[in-house]
Amino acid sequence: MSAATTAARSLHDLGLGSWFGGTLMGAIGLNGGAATARAPQERTRISSAGWQKWSPVLMLSIAAHVAGSVVMLFSDKQRLLVQEGGRRSAAIKTAITLLAIGASAYSGVLGRVQSAHQNEGGVGPTEPLASASPEMSGAQRQQKIVQWIPPALTGVLIVLAAQQGEQQRRTSPLVAAPSGLGARVRGLVARSR
Description:
Elements: H1 3-34, H2 40-75, H3 77-82, H4 86-116, H5 134-146, H6 149-170, H7 173-176, H8 179-192
């Protein structure tokens, strides 16, 4: 395994782990913790401040994961051409990654609306008060659902990455070899029997 492949796999895994863990902790820990504040305005202010601090790390995590994924895809193209299910698995993983990016981006848009209206407060960071403006109320209600989509999708990506790792581990060096070399080696093996 080359240093470039190791670096790409590290970017892929570290980015995905940070993305999954950060969004899950934010939904459970940050929003859950902020919901215990006494004043309604503090609940939304604390949550907004925490998510604003996390956003740059989230963007770096997503970028690292995508960069590592692209390099791994190109370095693994030979296996994907010959291994049954490899292309399908890579396509599914790519589609889920794009959905997770979209959900993370949409959650960020909702978070900016919540941050702009944080002085309105809330029953919790994702539960509006009866007196909330339509913008704040709508953003909070949507965020209550959307906040769970990135950790759910990135959790699926972790499982798919484990599955692909097993596919790569099971791939014979003969299958992964360039076609001319692989054919010659298979021919030599067949003649030696």
